[in-house]
Each structure stands twice: as C-alpha cells, then as structure tokens.
Specification:
60s Ribosomal Protein L30, Chain: A; 2 domains; four-stranded mixed sheet; 10 helices; globular; ATP-binding; PurM-like_N_sf
Length: about 375
Amino acid sequence: MTTAAKTPAANSPTAAAGESRTEHGVGVGVGTRAAAAATASTNPGSTGAAPEQTLAELSEGQVLARIFPRLPDAATQLLGPGDDAAVLRAPDGRFVVTTDMMIQGPDFRMAWSTPHDLGWKAAATNLSDVAAMGARPTALVVAIAAPPSTPISVIEGIADGLRDCCEALAPGCGVVGGDLSASDALTLAVTAFGDLEGREPVLRSGARPGDVVALAGGLGEAGAGLELLFRHGVDANGVPDAALASAVREQYPVEVGAQLAPSPPIDLGPAAAIAGATAMMDLSDGLFIDAGRLAKASGVGIDFAADALGDSIGLALGGGEDHGLLATFPADAVVPEGFRVIGTATDAAGAVLVDGRTHEQGGWDPYRGWDGALG
C-alpha cells in the first residue's frame, strides 16, 4: 500500500458539482465554470503563471484527447482504451491483480511533488506489488479524480509519469483504461495486472525457520527524504512550500527522489520466484511492520542483522515507502544478484528482532500518521 507524505486531507473528498458519467471505458465528472471558480483556491496545479485551461473548461473528449497519446500500450493488450473495457491476453491463464490509491494529503503534497512524480509513483507502487508475487507487470487501469479547477497540464504530467515509469521499470506494461471524475482532493487509484508466466505465486506465508531473509532495493532513503521535506520543505507555519522543497531535493536527490519518485526493483520479483523464494512482499509501510506481516503469515520469526540495516536502524525499520522486495530463500539457495541477505527466519513465530533483541516498532499507519493537512 502507498504511504507517502502522510499528512492529508482535513476534508474528506466529496463529489464536486456536476454530473458524472462513464463512456468508452473512461468516466469523467463534468464540472461547471462556477465549480471551478469555487475551488480555485485549492487548485493543485496553481503556479502563479498565466491562466491555462482547466478541467472545468474542457469536454470529456478534449481531456481524453490530451491524455491518450501520452500513455503506453500494453504488450498483452488486444483492445485498449476506447471501448467499455479493455481486453488483454492471459498466456498463463491467470492474472495477478492489485490496487492502490494516492490521495492528496495523506499520500502526497502538491507543493512537493510534480505531476510527473505523481504519475510515476502511482505506477511504481503498483508495479512493486505485482513483482512481489513473482509476476511480471502487464497492464494498468488508472482512475483520477481532481478539482475542476485543475489545469489540464497537471493531468498531462501525471500521464507522462505513468508512461515513463512503465517504460523504465516494466517495459511492455501499459495503461489500458481508467476513469476520470471530480473531487475536492486530487486522487489517483491504480489497478495493476501481472503475468505469472507459468510459475506459482510467491506468497507471504511460505517462509520456514532457517530460511535466509534478503532485501532488494533501498532501505530508509524514502523515510529520510520525507523527514527532510517536513523539516526543510515547509514555511515558518509548517505549510509545504514548493521552492523550499525544490532546494531540498537538489541538495538530497537520492533521499527525496526515493520518496517522491521511487524506482522499485521490478525485475527482481520474477527473478526471486525463479530462484526459489519461499515468501516475498513489497515494503510499503516500513521494514519492521512488513516483516511482522510476513512473519505472522508464515508462522516464523525474523531476526535482522544490525550491520545489514545501514547507519540508521530507526529509518531502516520504520521509514516506510521503500518499495523494495523482502524475500526469504532456503538456506542452501543461491540468492539472486540484486538481493542482499539481511537476516534469518527463526522458529519464534511472529517475532521481529534485531541481533536477537526486540526493537521499538516504527512504520506508517494511514489511520494514525496523517495530520489532516492537504499541502
């Protein structure tokens, strides 16, 4: 699940003015110019530049005409956007399916993220969930709800981010449909599909005592990036500031980039499955929380080696949003290149330890970690 800027919406998203309809597989909330004026103060794309066309000023067809050319086709697609539903090939006879939401406020701040960042991250977090099952991502369906005052360039930027992420991390995966609507807070919901290519899915429940615990991807950088943004990317009143955030990103590109536009090791999901991974999952909410979920599902304990967790054990265990792959392998297995061993599975069911000792729990809980601000 996504765990981004954890501090969102004091106001629950509500339906905006206008009639909602669905045509040709893509729905759109038809807002009025009056609705746009009423929500102008919450325009997520406002930059102070000359006014540009907003969603309220465009027809559904005009919006789609700006989006579709920017989106990648899926290699498995038999019928893409334009009908009531897409049609995909399923060579394996099975689909891996996952979904994830990003909501302005709890999951991202418009002052910190570019539209391209949002599209990229919305794709990346779903691709990672597919990879964690040992599958190869094949297609995305994307729903976007936005204030009617949103400039069309914001939606175009999101589409560009979706395309670039798919092309970079999961070539052959494309966007095959979706939905558009209106809301008070910008919201992205992505459903991803994957192909197991004849393999069995890798579940959370297969680890056994004696397995090695291995990680692919970064650990703690995204959490560090979020801390930096909350510390230095806000004004004197604690409000997210775009200029300050840009300066933070320039100074700490690795950490802030890991938070705003992560690059999960998608190819290593199928590689782990081929190598005999006994269990695997995506790291979204922090290593401590997610390892606990795997341990509980498998009926094992997990003991991490402190020297494998980096300089900040607190961030490594509780930072969240790393979107790496946590996997277990038999002790005699060859761990795939790109994974590094960070611990072992034990017979202490459900326990998560560091060098045999308990550690304070950290991580992200969407119902406790958001302060109600939109940003």
